[in-house]
Structures are given as structure tokens and as C-alpha cells.
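Aim 2, interim progress: modelling of the PMV-bound target.
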Amino acid sequence: MSGKLHDKYTREAVAKLPSRKETISTGWRSPSNIAIVKYWGKSEGQIPRNPSLSFSLKEAVTEMLLTALPHSGDGFSLEYSFEGKENEAFGMRIRKYLSNILPYFPFLNGFSLDIQSHNTFPHSSGIASSASSMSALALCICSLEEMMLRRRTDEEFYTKASFMARLGSGSASRSVFGGFASWGFIEGKDDTSDEFASALEIKKDTVFSDLNDAVLIVNPGQKKVSSSQGHSLMDSHPFAVGRYKQAGKNLSEVLQALENGDVETFIRITENEALSLHGLMMSSDPGFILLEPSTIEIISRIRKYREETGSFITFTIDAGPNVHLIYPGEVREAVQIFIRDELLEFCHDGKWIDDRMGGGPEELNIKDKK
Ligand code: PMV
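Predicted structure of the complex, ligand included:
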């Protein structure tokens, strides 16, 4: 693994270790995000094969508390609980992640880490929890480092947190910011990088600064194919080269659209990205289908409603069958009626989540939380 920041962070890590060890605690609330331009395909070291763009959600968040207690032995130990209970599968993932990031945080050796987390969204809601949980974890570890070793500017802090979140789950790199965030090098934008995401400033008080996301739960079950399997299938995908080119073009067009208030282009690209992602899944070897009949029915109804009303509503879909209905606050009332009258019958037990764009992670006041 290499890169400008990788080199900087590993150099810093060995340059300074804590002179004194004491118990410290931190906590973060960090959101999930929904991608408009999708990341699908990566190379060694969680480097994306194309740049992506998403916005962070407000309601779908992970809250995580981390306490580090000094111990006299070598290495680190971990106690992890999710929703108040031990969770072996995720505990193992966290342990592996912490071992991987030790070159950046060697100070973790010599601590017993106690991590407690919970999500504000239901476990089987079809909302990916890896972006919110891995970004919360990266923020907690970066906070520990701040408290113990070095102060950074806000920009440096969030860049490092995004870099670290990326190593846990690529899309988590974007959850470290509120509003829109992009991840991956964009031609002509020298401040962008494959190593971390950055916030995308857009004009205030436009339709794009007030987006809602109604997550229509078609199937709340576990995904049949994990996103890591999906990413690796892109390595030998016959359309890979074309896809990465398409994503780059879609990204620059959608950035222009956000800048110019061009709703039509935003809709065209958002839907093209969702359908292309699923097209890639179907045409990989082996091919797989995550869309379900109700997904298709919902998409048709959204398009019909847009045609009839001329409203700004569109959809995107992640690696699953659930539909994210995206629309601006100005049509909220009418769209909510549309959801209730026409879409809920296609959702699992009528389940949906009323979410919207959020302001990004928040540090928890852990004294209140304990
Ligand atoms: O971050 P991962 O490895 O779970 O991959 C996320 C992939 C998509 O959700 C399908 C797209 C994206 O950019 O978020």
C-alpha cells in the first residue's frame, strides 16, 4: 500500500508515541450515505477504480463509544458490543481492521479497547451499516490519537478520519462529511484523491441542498452477494474499462449539474448509475440479480409519477433490492402522499425509512452518554 498520505501517516506514527498512558474515552455519531455516482471495483489497498459521489443521511447513523484502558502487556485487546450484546461477526471485522491500521496507530498496542455501538436504523432495514459504523470507528480512533498525541486542524482531522474509514469500507470514507462528498481522484481537481474523500461545497438554498431520501424496503434480508464479492468480480468484468470511463463522465456531468441547478441531468445520471450498477452485477461472471419484481414496479411508478407531475423525483439503488427515492424538500408533502398511496404496497410489511441529507458526524458528549 502506498500513497502520499499513507507515507506521511506512517512516518508520523513512529515519530511520536505517548509518554504516559491513561484511560481515555471518546464517542462519535456518524451517518450512512447514499451514492449518486457508484463505487464498484477497487484495486489493492482499497483504492477505487473510479471516483464516486454521495450525500450523507441524517437519521441513519451509528453511535459509537470507545474507551481505551492501558494494560501492561503487548498488543491490544478488544471488547465489542453491538446494541448492548456481544456481536462476534462484527467484532471480528473490527479486530481485523484495528490490526490492519496498527502501522498508523502503533500507540494502540498497550491498550484494552472497549467499543460499544448501536445504530439508529433497524438492523434488517436494508440500509448498509458498514459506512456509518466504519466511519464512526475511524473518527473514534483519530480522536484518541488527538487526545494522546497530536492536535490537527479540522481539515487534517477529517482527512485522516476519511483515509482511515476508507480502509474499513470504501464508501465509509464519504460518511465523514455532511452533505455531498466525493471520493477518488477527479480529472482536473488536484485536491481530490483516491486515498480519502472530501466535502463538496454546493450552493445553499437550492433543491440540491435539501434532498430527502425515502428508503423503500423491498426486502430487509441480508444481501445475497456482499459488496466485497461484487468489487472483486469487477477485476475480470468484460465491461470494466467502459464502466470506469462512464463513471468518470457521469461524475463530471453531475458536478456540473449541481453547480448549474440542472435537475434534468442530475436525474438522468442518478438513474443511469443505479441501473448500470445492477447491469454490471447481472453481466459479471457469475452473474447475479439483486433486483426484485417490487423494485422494478417501484421504479416504473416513480418514472410515471414524474412524467405526470413534472416533479423532481428520482431513484437510486445500492447493492440490494431496496429503492432510495430522492426528492427535494419543496415537494415533500406531495411525495409522501404518493409513497403512501402507491409505493408502500410494494414494500416489505409496508416498511420505509423517511430520511434526508444530514450535516455529517458529530462528536458525542460522552459524559452524558455513560
Ligand atoms: O464500501 P463498500 O465496499 O460497501 O461498497 C459500496 C458499494 C455501493 O454501495 C454499491 C456503492 C457506493 O459507492 O456506495
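Residues 215 and 324 are 5 Å apart (CA to CA). The longest strand covers residues 52-70.
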